[in-house]
Amino acid sequence: MDLPDAPIAKQGSYVAHFLTVADQPRSSQFYVGILGGRVVRGPDPTYIKLANSWIILTSGGGPTPDKPTVMLETPKDLNKVSSFLNLQ
């Protein structure tokens, strides 16, 4: 990632919201085309600069050495959520 393009806050902080998605190109189109973000790096993971934040899209996977029992996967039931992103 080219650091001048990274959404690093000069003051305060920034938010990085990590999303496991089934279709990164389609998800990227939403965050770029609708919300005005900009793809900084990708694919998998895809980093999208959006104001003072990052939207990070991944296809999932795992486990990793630091989380040997954790798997990232897309939701099995789209009517049940464990988090949401509220942008205002």
Computed CA radius of gyration, to the nearest angstrom: 14 Å
Largest sheet: 4 strands, mixed
Tally of helical segments: 1
How much β-strand is present in the residues?
Answer: 15-25%
How helix-rich are the residues, as a percent range? 10-25%
Question: In order across it, which strands form the biggest sheet?
Answer: 1-4-3-2
Work out the oligomeric state of the chains in this entry: single chain
Structural class call reads alpha+beta
Q: Please give the alpha-carbon distance between the first and last residues.
A: 27 Å
Would you report the number of β strands? 4
Averaged pLDDT: 84
* Secondary-structure element string: EHEEE
Task: Detail the poorly predicted runs.
Answer: none
Shape: globular
Keywords:
globular, alpha+beta, 88 residues, 12% helix, single chain
Structure description:
The protein is an alpha+beta fold and 88 residues long. The chain has a domain of 44 residues. The protein contains 1 helix and 4 strands. Strands 1-4-3-2 form a 4-stranded mixed sheet, with helices on one face. Strand 3 and strand 4 form a beta hairpin. The two termini are 27 Å apart.
